[in-house]
Amino acid sequence: MGSKNKLRRFKENEAFANVFQPTRDELVSSNFNLKGNWRTAVFKNDNPLVLELGCGKGEYSVALAQKYLNKNFIGIDIKGARFWRGAKTAIEENINNVAFLRTQIELIDHAFAENEVDEIWITFPDPQIKYKRTKHRMTNAEFLKRYIKF
Ligand SMILES: C[S@@+](CC[C@H](N)C(=O)[O-])C[C@H]1O[C@@H](n2cnc3c(N)ncnc32)[C@H](O)[C@@H]1O
């Protein structure tokens, strides 16, 4: 993807009501007002909350949201230009039970409160096959310790 196209997508993400892009500081300083409030503030219901970590273009999050209307889905990825696709499709097709969060998965425990999340999906994550990169694998023990709190 060309850099112009990426910039256009970043700009559109800023205007999308279903995209949330807290800064690292907001998350780490505990100033992120959606932590513990995703259901009421974003989805306006009390349905179960499902996360897709490393959602890429968000195809799974969007498709799951279409299939399971009684659940809320949040696709999470650091690459905003990728999940722009899912966010735009959700807006165009009026799918209101899916949202997207741009953050590093390493910061995820700053974005969700204990017992706030009901299900986590990790579909086709980066395999991180080089030994030095294994600590970045989303299924690495350090990551699992974060998810278990939810
Ligand atoms: C191989 S792609 C898979 C995308 C999607 N799950 C699918 O199956 O099409 C992995 C995705 O995880 C994201 N990712 C990897 N490590 C991440 C991290 N630490 N924090 C946030 N996103 C991450 C990448 O940006 C990428 O979009």
Key words describing this protein structure:
150 residues, binds S-adenosylmethionine, 5-stranded parallel sheet, Rossmann fold, 6 helices, alpha/beta
Written account of the structure:
This protein is α/β, with parallel strands linked by helices and 150 residues long. It has a single domain (12-125), classed as Rossmann fold. It is 36% helix and 14% strand. The longest helix is centred in the N-terminal third of the chain and has 13 residues, at 3-15. The N and C termini lie far apart (35 Å). The chain binds S-adenosylmethionine. S-adenosylmethionine binds at residues 54-56, 77-79, 82, 104-106, 123-126, 138.
Annotate the secondary structure layout.
Layout: H1 3-15, E1 19-20, H2 24-28, H3 38-43, E2 49-53, H4 59-67, E3 72-77, H5 80-92, E4 98-102, E5 119-121, H6 141-148
Parallel strand pairs: 1-4, 2-3, 2-5, 3-4
This protein binds S-adenosylmethionine.
